Give the backbone structure.
Amino acid sequence: MTQLPQSTDRKMGLVIDLDTCVGCHACVISCKGWNTENYGAPLSDQDAYGADPSGTFLNRVHSYEVQPAESHAQLIHFPKSCLHCEDAPCVTVCPTGASYKRVEDGIVLVNESDCIGCGLCAWSCPYGARELDQAEGVMKKCTLCVDRIYNENLPEVDRVPSCVRTCPAGARHFGDLGDPNSDVSKLVAERDGMDLMPEMGTKPVNKYLPPRPKDTVEDQIDILAPLLAPVAEEPKGFISWLDKALDKLPGGSA
Amino acid sequence: MHPAPSVIVFTTLSGLGFGLLFFLGLGVPDVSGWVAFTFFAIAYALAVGGLLASTFHLGHPERALKAFSQWKSSWLSREGWCAVIALSVMGLYAIGVIFLGQSSGALGLIGALFSLATVFTTSMIYTQLKTIPRWNMKLTPVMFLSMSLAGGALLAGQTPIALPLLVIAAFVQMLYWRFGDKAFAASGTNMGTATGLGDRGTVRAFEPPHTGTNYLLREFVHVVGRKHAERLRVISFILAFFLPFLLLLVPFSHLFALLAVLSHLVGVALSRWLFFAQAEHVVGLYYGKR
């Protein structure tokens, strides 16, 4: 049913640390690999080896430059996948009941055999988390690796989403964000975890940990400042003469 | 948004068709026999043709019947129900009018109301989307309904009704463009809120996730043709409202009436193209495209 549950028993989701992510895209590749080979329709590529390749991905890593007013620009790598929103607009717009949010763990899923591929759920998602597979004609989205996290055929260490298991930097964390005592909830509380586009009213379960403040270069330079300061403020002697002479030539600055 | 031809054809034709059905249901014009048959045939061709066109963009049109199941939450599902009820009720009403020479006022009224409800539910599919501020306005259903009613009156050959309705629809269209142009900025969503990094400084998209394009960019970040938007608005306005208005003012002839309808049809289709092509989805912010 595409009516949202009043509440879910647990709120399983991801916590993504923007301070730690190095932008290696390993999570993108492992996600594509696991979700192509396992649950649901494979994530197809079109013209994969041609001039205009494109394909379905459930997780994409953007990179942003943030320029503060006073200090140096900062580069922030930004993985983005389904946020498994509490008030998921993609679920309620679905005309067939293919999209649903699970009561037991809050995971938002698509029943692919009911999906008519109208695309309206992707229109309603502010985060670009849903992509219509061009080969299958059905909507694909992050399943939070629902076929891994409860899979008793896998060693316990692997019962986390593929992206979390793969991340070499430890920038991705998985757990129950509905339980205030869980590791992920503590992490969010400690690091001021934030929502993306809170004004959309989607109440995302996934949280992003903002980058920690950087050391400022100005503070460091003070120690070495006397040694690094320019020796000659104004040119003298031969250099001074050369500077003036060159300025007087046609095209010079004087 | 990507201006998919199937959706433009659908909203344009079915809007006009259900507009005509609304007036036929009210017994305007009061016709019977072959004349009534012609009116109903045109209305059904437009309404059903439009609905069929809308299934062309589906990934799995063979599962379309499943779309009737979620009317409690989904506007798309409600639209399906309204369309089926309107077409069924108006079909029964048409049989009475055409073949039996009698019309049931109650049946016609119900059919007329569901015809309007179909246009309203269509508009709500777009209006409900917070992700597209230009659509997420109370003016969107007003625009769809006013255009449908003006077009319906025009097709029904009701000059005294069509003239004021054309003026109203033109006015609503102007308001829609005026407020629509400010909607994205007014929504408060920007790269800062999208990334959550806005309070640290100016956020700039440094590198996209992939070097190539993708479904999201093709579907939501349509920019081609925007540079002609202002000129297209003028052309659309003249064709949809101004020209039909003038053609209705001159003494009635079938040729002028046909020209007025065709001009209106092309003008509305153009307006609908702009409705999609100019709509900015907030996901474009993640790609630095807004």
Summary: Residues 12-209 of chain A form a domain with the Alpha-Beta Plaits fold (CATH 3.30.70.20). The two ends of chain A are 78 Å apart (CA to CA). Residues 30 and 224 of chain A are 45 Å apart (CA to CA). Chain A has a mean pLDDT of 92.
